[in-house]
Amino acid sequence: MKKEDAQLFRPRMVLSLSLLATALLGSWLYPASRTVWNELDEATFRLLNGSLNSLQDVPGWTAMWAYMNIRFFDVVVLILMTSFLWTPGVTFPKAEIPAGTVRFAVLLLCLLAVRGGFHGVVLFFDWSRPGPSLVYEPCVRLSELYPHLQTKDCSPKSFPGDHAAVTMLWAGFTLISTRNRWTPLVLLLTVFLMLPRLVGGAHALSDDLVGGAFVTLITLAFAAGTPLLSMVSDRVSALVDPLIDWVVRMLPFRGQNIADCTSVEPSQHQRPATEDDQRPAA
To answer: How far apart are CA 85 and CA 99, in angstroms?
Structure first.
């Protein structure tokens, strides 16, 4: 996403994302379509959580989902997202990586603000509900299979899905920034990273595709679709640029390339001609 484009107010993006978010939430609140969502929630839970039983003989299947539902895995996800941001050519060209990282960090803060406001609305209208592992039986509970891991496989208030919102925000930010050969991998990873809470039963499908998506779409609409993100990130960049420059210079190889990308030595055809260069060939 070019800086000059990020500074523009894009009403089409704001309108389309806002309408999509409103349509998703409305379909979940309207009784007739809510029935469809409830059926999808139960069917998805039966399929994904049931795989912990039907595929228990597959080596590492249940253990994989158990480890993906511990708190430390959230750090792994953050490192994975950061690696995509900091690999030149995946999300940004080398010269735009520091500024792009700041934009994503600011966007995450905007997401927290939107999520906080939406959470208040959810509590006010009593839209909150327990996760599927507390509703449906039979249920395979990872916390009982792996009690030493302290897995998160239940939630008394599962709507909206916070983890899904962060993951979808990363995907949305990547799609807005660039679309290249890495885009399919980003989309596949987004779906995969949303699965652990669904498999464990802490969240239902509509917690993610309605609640989480609503928070994400509103954040992208009014942050990335307006000058807000650019204005705030420019001010933050002015404060943290010295720190980022120090960090990238500490990184081996790639960090050095990023830091030096704006100060490349002139090539032979760019440097001033010397006396030897001006001497005619024999």
So the answer is: 10
Residue 76 belongs to some domain of the structure: yes
In a domain, 265, yes or no: no
The answer to whether the beta carbons of residues 249 and 255 sit under 8 Å apart is: yes
Helical H segments across the chain, by residue range: 3-6, 11-29, 31-54, 61-67, 72-86, 97-124, 142-145, 162-177, 183-200, 205-206, 213-219, 228-250, 254-260, 275-278
Residues 6+ apart with CB under 8 A from 44: 198, 204, 205
Helices (H), 87-227: 97-124, 142-145, 162-177, 183-200, 205-206, 213-219
Note down the domain range covering 165: 3-54+62-257
- Examine the pLDDT at 65 and tell me if it is beyond 80: yes
Over residues 41-50, the mean pLDDT reads: 96
Structure tokens at 13: 């993006």
| Residue indicated by tokens 């509103």 | 218
Q: What is the pLDDT of residues 204-223, one digit of tens each?
A: 999 999 999 999 999 999 88
- How many alpha carbons lie under 13 Å from residue 51 in its C-beta half-sphere? 20
3-state secondary structure of 180: coil
Residue 279 lies in a domain: no
Residues 247 and 256: beta-carbon distance below 8 Å: no
With beta carbons less than 8 A apart as the criterion, state whether 202 and 131 touch.
yes
Is residue 18 within 8 A of residue 28, CB to CB? The reply is no
241 falls within a domain? yes
Global confidence as pTM: 0.81
How far is Cα 54 from Cα 69, in angstroms, rounded to an integer?
19
19: Cβ–Cβ under 8 A, 6 or more apart, which residues?
none
Task: Write the DSSP symbol of residue 142.
Answer: H
State the total domains in the chain. 1
Structure tokens belonging to residue 37: 């969502």
What is the crossing angle of helices 97-124 and 228-250, to 10°? 130
